[in-house]
Specification:
Blueprint: H1 2-46, H2 50-85, H3 91-121, H4 131-138, H5 141-162, H6 167-184, H7 186-194
Helix pairs in contact: 1-2, 1-5, 3-4, 3-5, 3-6, 5-6
């Protein structure tokens, strides 16, 4: 009987270790994808030709197949880890789940439509950039949203690491992450005014 208890513990630890490994893999994938988006949003603002914009949009397209599955792996492995550790009832877990939903909303409701609008504004072939495309490229909205979402993800990592005691302190940490994302976007607003 004692052996079956030990076997169960070893088996549980193996599943836990695998889930933790996949959680880290998902985290790396997510930040690689978000990093690509961050870089592309900076280079799109400086693009001066249709070919440059198309090239950077191709790089942007590679971010989604990396960050999307990474987020899915993160959510599934995180749910398993939270379930077996009993963390589902903690305030930091609730705040993390809200932040994930908020970050997904930023991506689907605000970022993707802006990228589609840039694509749609491009002329055929290698023609010069029209004023409408240039205005979309220079607007601070896309880089701001991408930076805020990346910092929210970093805020979630903080919550998972520090595990604040209350929902209030967890939400405060996420608010700080959003403010840092806005501060990281300040150059986009100053360049937009200069243009």
């Amino acid at each position: 009987m004692a052996n079956s208890g030990v076997g169960y513990t070893v088996e549980t630890m193996t599943y836990y270790s695998l889930a933790l490994f996949f959680h880290f893999v998902g985290l790396v994938m997510l930040f690689i994808g978000y990093g690509l988006e961050w870089i592309v949003s900076a280079f799109l603002r400086g693009a001066t030709t249709t070919d440059q914009v198309r090239a950077w949009l191709r790089v942007y397209r590679t971010s989604l197949p990396v960050s999307g599955p990474g987020l899915l792996v993160l959510i599934l492995s995180g749910a398993y880890l939270a379930q077996i550790s009993g963390a589902m009832k903690n305030g930091w877990m609730s705040a993390s789940m809200l932040a994930i939903v908020f970050a997904l909303g930023i991506g689907f409701v605000f970022i993707l439509p802006r990228v589609k609008a840039i694509r749609a504004a491009l002329p055929e072939g290698s023609a010069a950039l029209p004023a409408s495309a240039t205005a979309l490229l220079r607007a601070p909205g896309l880089p701001t949203l991408i930076r805020v979402r990346a910092l929210i993800a970093l805020g979630i990592v903080y919550l998972m690491t520090a595990k604040p005691d209350t929902l209030g302190s967890s939400m405060l940490a996420l608010a700080v992450a959003i403010i840092l994302g806005l501060l990281a976007s300040a150059p986009a607003f100053s360049k937009s005014k200069a243009a």
